[in-house]
Design brief:
globular, single chain, 184 residues, Glutaredoxin, 6 helices, alpha/beta
Length: 184
């Protein structure tokens, strides 16, 4: 009996360890404004509220802790999707939550090298914006929202995000780009 109880507790702990929540969850409203330092875009070099800038428009918001090839691939795809959805004023941005000051020039270089035109790159404190609950173990948190309501949330630990995950994220774009009356 005791062994069974210990086994159940161990399994529950293992399952909980695998479930990582980060950022606002589906159905939540955005916690509010925050002002990261924009490193690209029209407000580069200034602290600017990207949530405010995008208003009620559809947005892909990414929180990241480091630059890696898979994140770069995601950012390029999101930049392209943002360009393709200019008619509905879709926005996108990546906030790097890191204390690493050496990452800032690398982020600027990423924007230039990849010729990002629509996805804004910014930095904020390591904990992320107040109220956004960015998990310490989450290296990448992708949040899709419209009308400031969260429609999709994808979270990845270090080295977890793969190419097929980018495809899944992009498949969620209609959740923010299709008007509610047309959703099925």
């Amino acid at each position: 009996m005791i062994r069974a109880a210990v086994f159940v507790l161990m399994m529950t702990s293992a399952i909980q360890a695998e479930e990582l929540k980060s950022g606002p969850q589906v159905g939540d409203k955005l916690p509010g404004a925050f002002h990261p330092l924009n490193l690209s875009g029209p407000e580069a070099g200034k602290k600017n509220c990207l949530v405010c800038q995008n208003g009620l428009n559809p947005v892909v918001m990414i929180f990241a802790r480091e630059i890696d090839p898979t994140l770069t691939a995601l950012i390029k795809k999101v930049d392209g999707a943002t360009a393709a959805n200019q008619k509905i004023e879709m926005g996108s941005f990546v906030v790097f939550c890191t204390p690493d000051e050496e990452l800032e020039p690398k982020i600027k270089e990423l924007a230039e090298k990849e010729k990002l035109k629509h996805c804004i790159l910014a930095t904020d404190n390591p904990a992320g914006p107040r109220g956004y609950k960015i998990a310490k173990d989450a290296v990448i948190t992708v949040v899709l929202y419209t009308n400031r309501e969260i429609k999709a949330n994808h979270v990845f630990r270090k080295d977890e995000m793969k190419t097929e995950d980018i495809v899944k994220i992009l498949k969620d774009l209609p959740k923010i780009t299709t008007p509610a009356t047309e959703e099925k």
